[in-house]
Design a protein that fits this description.
The protein contains 13 helices and eleven strands. The protein is α/β, with parallel strands linked by helices.
């Protein structure tokens, strides 16, 4: 079964395309959301940090609105239900498209310009000699035919799209080249848990989720491969906020300093050391990867 992904304008977003530059630009509340790519506890911590920090910097009420899934996060910014969104590379591109190009990327963590995916394997599988660290996915290919594999949500850049891209380039068929066919998880936390407890042999996930996991979890889920780098997460703002407000929001992120105690909660919530200004053109590679997968029949 091939994965299904629409990058340009999924049906759920069509009704939103005409509304991104409409009403509510002068709302006294800045509405923020993002993709639910981690555990609920982590998302709650991010919401609290955003409301507190941005509210103080902008001198206005900030409300974080939880999204039920990746598509819902994009649909909300497309339909003016949120003003600002924290997205992955694929959903960031989708968010701009859902606003008919009137939304734009304004900030990213410095590390998102050099992001990567880890492939991990269950400790028992490694100890049994069925798989181990490899220098390339081509070397992993013959081992996967006898192993189960899982990765992230179809709309996740680091959890699904980029690992699929690299595996396809290595000649790995995700339908027949892994035992039982590749399975998707809702988020990176679930992928890590599935591999760590032995429900799945091998998985691929966002490297920051793995690096931030407990030592015990990493002992049970062994890192076996690290992909080349690519661009990933970004902060997307609706154009209807206006240039002055967008500049203030951008400055609030890019001035974050790990040396300042009052900034640590915000940086920790985003698993960031530093934010930098972003340009939408930097995510062209994401569009190119998705189109390539679609052309190869890997995404529909």
């Amino acid at each position: 079964m091939r994965a299904t992904l629409q990058i340009a304008a999924p049906a759920v977003f069509i009704a939103a395309l005409a509304s991104c530059s409409g009403a509510d630009a002068e709302s006294p509340t800045l509405r923020v959301s993002g993709i639910p790519d981690s555990s609920g506890t982590e998302i709650d911590a991010l919401a609290r940090a955003v409301e507190s920090y941005l509210g103080g910097e902008l001198g206005m009420k900030v409300e974080y609105i939880n999204a039920t899934n990746y598509d819902a996060a994009v649909a909300m910014i497309g339909s003016n239900k949120v003003d600002l969104g924290w997205f992955g590379g694929v959903t960031g591109v989708d968010a701009v498209d859902a606003c008919n190009g009137e939304a734009r990327m304004i900030a990213t963590r410095e590390k998102d310009l050099q992001f990567k995916t880890y492939f991990i394997a269950n400790r028992a599988v490694v100890d049994a000699g069925k798989v181990g660290p490899v220098d390339s996915l081509e070397a992993l290919k013959p081992k996967l035919s006898n192993l189960s594999f899982t990765f992230g949500n179809l709309r996740s850049t680091s959890g699904h799209i980029m690992p699929r891209h690299f595996m396809t380039a290595a000649g790995i068929d995700l339908d027949s080249g892994v035992r039982g066919g590749a399975k998707n998880q809702d988020n990176h936390t679930m992928t890590l848990d599935m591999v760590a407890d032995g429900r799945v042999d091998v998985g691929a996930l966002n490297y920051t989720n793995y690096d931030g996991a407990s030592d015990e979890k990493k002992k049970q889920a062994v890192k076996i491969y690290e992909t080349p780098t690519y661009v990933d997460y970004c902060m997307v703002a609706r154009g209807s906020l206006g240039d002055e407000m967008i500049a203030k929001i951008q400055a609030a992120f890019t001035q974050l300093d790990a040396a300042k105690p009052e900034h640590r909660a915000m940086l920790n919530a985003f698993k960031a050391e530093k934010f930098v200004a972003a340009e939408s053109s930097q995510w062209q590679m994401v569009r190119d990867v998705v189109k390539s997968l679609q052309d190869k029949g890997q995404l529909k």
